[in-house]
């Protein structure tokens, strides 16, 4: 009888120990996630909407941040290929661990239709979507540079 009580006690202690270990592990995961979010927040320095000061003479920095919207073919289902490249006139935005395009969004007539989040230094600011453009009046691309702010461009159809 004493042995049975002892085994039950050991079992209960084991479950308590395992539970504590699991809770500790979850806290570690939460801390890691928090650290990643804090690290991203530190590296994202500018969330202001930026504008080209003189559209007739954009600077190299302005061209580098302006999303370029191009239209491709229309598929058999009626969706047109819409590509967005961050940078225009052949001046492409850099992709480094400390300076990159962190997101890209595409709107048709003000409604969000596509979004891409980009990890630091992992991919260049480019994306393509297939979009039904029947009756659409405008496409707007919005991008975020972690250092130089939010830039946008609109294509009137």
Pick out its properties.
2 helices; four-stranded antiparallel β-sheet; single chain; 31% helix; extended; alpha+beta; 157 residues; Immunoglobulin-like; 2 domains
How does this structure look, described?
It is a single chain. The chain is of the alpha+beta class. The protein folds into 2 domains: 43 residues; 97 residues, Sandwich (Immunoglobulin-like), CATH 2.60.40.730. Helices cover 31% and strands 37% of the residues. Strands 1, 2, 3 and 6 form a 4-stranded antiparallel β-sheet that branches. Strand 4 and strand 5 form a beta hairpin. The chain is extended and about 90 Å long. The model has no long low-confidence stretch (mean pLDDT 83).
**CATH fold topology of the largest domain:** Immunoglobulin-like
Structural class call reads alpha+beta
- Helix-strand string: HHEEEEEEEE
- Radius of gyration (Å): 25 Å
| Regions with little confidence, pLDDT below 50 for 5+ residues | none
Residue share in β-strands: 35-45%
- Total number of helices: 2
Mean pLDDT: 83
What's the architecture of the largest domain, going by CATH?
Answer: Sandwich
Query: Main β-sheet, in a few words?
Result: 4 strands, antiparallel
How would the global form be characterised?
extended
Tally of DSSP β-strands: 8
Q: CATH-wise, what's the superfamily of the largest domain?
A: SOR catalytic domain
Summarize the amount of helix as a percent range. Answer: 25-40%
CATH class of the largest domain: Mainly Beta
């Amino acid at each position: 009888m004493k042995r049975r009580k002892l085994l039950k006690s050991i079992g209960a202690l084991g479950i308590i120990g395992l539970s504590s270990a699991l809770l500790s592990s979850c806290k570690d995961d939460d801390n890691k996630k928090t650290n990643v979010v804090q690290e991203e927040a530190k590296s994202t320095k500018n969330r202001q909407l930026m504008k080209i000061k003189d559209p007739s003479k954009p600077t190299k920095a302005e061209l580098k941040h302006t999303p370029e919207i191009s239209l491709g073919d229309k598929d058999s289902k009626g969706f047109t290929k819409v590509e967005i490249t961050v940078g225009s006139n052949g001046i492409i935005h850099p992709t480094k661990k400390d300076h990159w395009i962190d997101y890209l969004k595409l709107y048709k007539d003000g409604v969000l239709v596509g979004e891409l989040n980009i990890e630091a230094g992992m991919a260049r600011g480019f994306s393509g979507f297939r979009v039904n453009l029947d009756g659409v009046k405008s496409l707007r691309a919005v991008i975020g540079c972690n250092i130089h702010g939010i830039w946008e461009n609109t294509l009137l159809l």
